[in-house]
Design a protein that fits this description.
This protein has one domain (14-160): Up-down Bundle (Four Helix Bundle (Hemerythrin (Met), subunit A)), CATH 1.20.120. It has helices at residues 15-32, 40-67, 75-94, 103-134; strands spanning 136-137, 142-143. By secondary structure, it is mainly α. Helix 1 (15-32) packs antiparallel against helix 4.
Length: 162
Amino acid sequence: MSTLAWTDDLALQHPQMDLTHQEFIELLAAADAVLAPGQEAALLARFDTLVAHTIEHFGQEDRWMQASGFAPENCHSFQHQAVLQVMQECARRARLTDAPDFEPLRIAVRELAVWFPQHAKMMDAALAQHLESVGLDIASGQCAQAPAAGAITGCGGSSCGG
């Protein structure tokens, strides 16, 4: 059973972001449900689905950041890249034909359940606030108000300097 479940505490009052986060948690729980030895094929299939979702999930947020005044090298996008790289490496190791190694993948599932709420409550919450402040229309990618002068290199919140 997953140690992470959707709660109102994780809601950011950004409907698209909240829906995407709920989907992430459901897919993570599905992978968590088959962590036991002997379920490797199911675990890899579910993790692959989680990775595919995460590529689009992070890509969506990165596109919003780009449209709303973030620098390409901002720390939020950097964290997305690092987490996705680890997830993809875990899946690669599980696919090794000579000696598949599922332990990193199992660890990643458990650690993502710890990492995600922190990421959502800090970086994604700051992003949701920022998107609201500039009036980003997620359908068109256009901001109602011009982003502040100077690209944002932090996470968009006051806790990391912008």
